[in-house]
Amino acid sequence: MRTEIVHIGAGELTYEIRNIVNVGMKLQKLGLKVNWENIGDPVAKGEKVPGWMKDIVAEAVMDDHTYAYCPTRGVLSTREFLAEQTNKRGGAQIGPDDILFFNGLGDAISKVFGFLRRTARVIVPTPSYTTHSSAEAAHAEDSPLTYILDPNNHWYPDIDDIEKSVRYNPAVAGILIINPDNPTGAVYPTEILERIVEIAHRYDLFLICDEIYQNIVYNGTTTSPLSDVIGTVPGIAMKGISKEMPWPGSRCGWIEVYNGDKDPMFAKYVTSILNAKMVEVCSTTLPQMVLPKVLQHPEYQGYLEERIRRYERFSNIAYDCLKDVKGVLVNRPNGAFYMSVCFEDGALTSRQTLPIDNVEIKKLIESLVSPPGTACDKRFVYYLLGATGICVVPLTSFATELKGFRITLLERDEKEFVRIFKTIADAIRRYTKS
Fold first, then answer.
1. Beta bridge partners of 147
2. Parallel, antiparallel, or unpaired: how do β-strands 172-178 and 121-126 relate?
3. For residue 33, which phi and psi values (nearest 5 degrees)?
4. How far apart are CA 132 and CA 419, in angstroms?
5. Which uninterrupted H or E stretch holds 301?
6. H or E segment at 105?
7. Which fold has domain 10-47+301-433?
8. How far is CA 421 from CA 36, 80, 152, 228, 325, in A?
9. How far is CA 305 from CA 46, 219, 302, 368, 419, in A?
């Protein structure tokens, strides 16, 4: 090209969660059976959408209005319903115009970070969900600014690290919280959220809280939504139906804006996000229209609770399988449906391998891990995939220097779930001794 056409931040847009799928697909063609434990899609992992939910959607499909554009902010009756649910809690009070729908939270994340001034930074957790860290880095044309989630303290945010990151970097305008967390499965106590809010208040920042897993919490833990603790600090909560309902293919998410009138600059920023959505006209109508009916259905809560109990049981099975494996640090997940496992310092080298019987598969894996600078945990993950067919995601792909992997708790067959985690435990033992 006669002139540069690639955005300077394009190199920060990575998504190893799906990149590894390309490798897995090649291995499948070579005869390997793959267990896809990399993507948080409950339906793809066998979650059965109940008939009553399908009936609600089917009825809506017969309504011509579901084929039409909706208002840019989203279907009014749905926004009124969601605002009422938030206001019932007694924290931050919002109206329907404080809610804006998107085609999934990926769309929302792109807009929320993309319409910040390039020099205004949002510090994100490390490890961090890739869509957030990549979008923030791309908008700033730089590496993401991060604060520590501590694997030695239940993966909780390091409050001192947040404070230092804010105090010594005047470019920081906001703080991102993911609660419950992806990729770690951590659930943050209300006290920790209140301390982050206090920092935001003291330094005149705004908050973003990804709450897509807000209602998937277990093992006796409790937390609070941002609306309960935010006080007068400007903030944005991100919500959606892809994980909880679950309907990931709907691509339906929304943001709730708190204290949008408390700061003129924040108000102008929120308006820019709305205007960007207005250029697109609106988000998909159908899932918005069925959302209140699904959430208010008499069987919905029981259906959700059954899933939560299963995640709780599987979180404990996973923890018990891995907790005594030498060389790794394991925390029990308490929310969402992910688990992050860290390797201890020095446990991984660039020479370790796992035996792979299929010559073609072995050759492919060796070619993928041979480039200089390949992260040691990526090397382990690829050997695990080639040797066992278990597809997980290297932890270093989540904006962290910690070596490890993320795996889901979504496998529905308990015997198969136990087999997968026992296989991983055995693979770690063999790999670290090789």
1. 125
2. parallel
3. -80, 125
4. 32
5. helix 300-322
6. helix 104-114
7. Aspartate Aminotransferase, domain 1 (3.90.1150)
8. 13, 44, 22, 37, 11
9. 17, 13, 5, 41, 25
Give dist(CA 92, CA 88) in Å, integer. Answer: 10
Q: Which of 308, 298, 302 is nearest to 336 (CA)?
A: 308
* CB atoms near residue 41 (< 10 Å): 16
Provide Rg for the chain, Cα atoms: 22
**Fold type of domain 51-295:** Aspartate Aminotransferase; domain 2 (3.40.640)
Collapsing DSSP states into helix, strand and coil, what is residue 164?
A: helix
Tally Cβ neighbours within 10 Å of residue 299: 12
Tokens 């109940």 map to which residue? 50
pLDDT in tens, the chain (434 residues): 655 655 544 444 455 666 788 888 888 888 889 898 988 899 989 999 999 999 999 999 999 999 999 999 999 999 999 999 999 999 999 999 999 999 999 999 999 999 999 899 999 999 999 899 989 988 888 889 999 999 999 999 999 999 999 999 999 999 999 999 999 999 999 999 999 999 999 999 999 999 999 999 999 999 999 999 999 999 999 999 999 999 999 999 999 999 999 999 999 999 999 998 988 889 999 999 999 999 999 999 999 999 999 999 999 999 999 999 999 999 999 999 999 999 999 999 999 999 999 999 999 999 888 888 889 999 999 999 999 999 999 999 999 999 999 999 999 999 999 999 999 999 999 999 97
Kindly give, in sequence order, each residue whose CB lies less than 8 Å from that of residue 267, ignoring residues fewer than 6 positions away: 260, 261
Sheet with 393-394: list strands edge to edge: 328-330, 338-343, 404-408, 393-394
| CB-based contact 52:294 (threshold 8 Å) | no
The angle subtended at Cα 137 by Cα 161 and Cα 92, nearest 5°, is: 65
Intervals of CATH 3.40.640.10 along the chain: 51-295
Say how many C-beta atoms besides its own lie within 10 A of residue 268's C-beta.
Answer: 9
Q: Please give the structure tokens belonging to residue 410.
A: 């979504």
Q: How far apart are CA 65 and CA 62, in angstroms?
A: 9
